[in-house]
Amino acid sequence: MTSRERVRKAIGHQQPDKVPANFECAPYVAEKMIKHYGLQDIDQVRQKLDIDIYPVEAEYIGPELKTYYDKGDKIEESYLGYKVKKVWTGKEYNDLHFYFPLDEYKTLEDLKKYRWPSADWFDYESIKRQCDRYRDKAIIMGHEGPFQIATFLRSMENLLVDMVLEPEFAHYIYDRLVEFELEYYERILIAADGQIDILRPHDDYGTQINLLFSINMWRDYFKENTKKLVNLAHKYHAFYMQHSCGSVRPIIPELIDCGVDVLEPIQKVKGLEPRELKKEFGDKLAFHGGIDTQGLLPFGTPEDIIIETKYFVDSLNVNGGYILMASQVFENDVPIENIEAMYSVR
């Protein structure tokens, strides 16, 4: 069974020959693992770990983006217009969003004048080249979703206040971003000529204890746009994977109603216990991830990792329906031996 067959079978709720696996890590972890194994690139790391899912993305060719230094800090500008500062954590550099361009905007007329991203700023021929490298692998693509991007363009506190007091203003932001994503993703799907298996936007709707907003508010701002993205994926015979960190149990029925095929990352939070998820939603939804990156993977032993991974596989990989991965990308605090232990359970 090829990797692509294995992944598509699992998402389609059929038992694969073994549980499929994905691998995602911070850049510094990639560098560390390449050096540790004496390999050339991250694709060779994926091959060593027997990973089934490989990512592609369109290369940016749009307006020049500025990178500069301010008082010793490295500043990078995004094509979306926000800026990030590279901050040293003691182990690695992380991005700190510090400039939110839409915080300066007060009216709908202001928003309409903003330089919104264009799907013309990307090289879609690069997708065909990338897909050709990954024949027989399951291919995934997708970046931050409309809510996540909006929190980069307008600070969270302002955006949440908008959703309550200025709904027309908030709707315009989300709808304008979905309009861009629909064109951008469709052009990737066309260029890939049937080789994209999973479309995955990243939107974090939850905290570690609950949703960021009410279910009714989620329906109002995100349900129809989610349906549009799901329908686009299905139009090109791809599955739709919804990323959302946090305690999102209350909106799982809503995601199913939208046609979502896979939910990830299944954090270790109330409401996302694997056996209960499988029992209640396992015939309608597949699951991705779940091996805890906050406590277990950084601080547990390889034996601890194996026990927890077996629990997830045994609970969720029944008639398919599960893809093995950590609950988030592997960060620099996760020992390589713990990563190896997780992937040894297949």
Rounded to the nearest angstrom, the radius of gyration is 20 Å
User: How would you write the strand order of the largest sheet?
Assistant: 1-8-9-10-11-12-13
C-alpha geometry: globular
Mean pLDDT: 96
Number of domains as seen in the coordinates: 1
- What's the CATH architecture? Alpha-Beta Barrel
Bin the helical content: 40-55%
Q: Proportion of β residues?
A: 5-15%
Largest sheet: 7 strands, parallel
Helix segment tally:
14
Contiguous uncertain segments of 5+ residues: none
CATH first level: which class?
Answer: Alpha Beta
Distance, first to last CA = 14 Å
| CATH fold field value | TIM Barrel
* Class based on secondary structure composition and strand pairing: alpha/beta
Number of E-state strands: 13
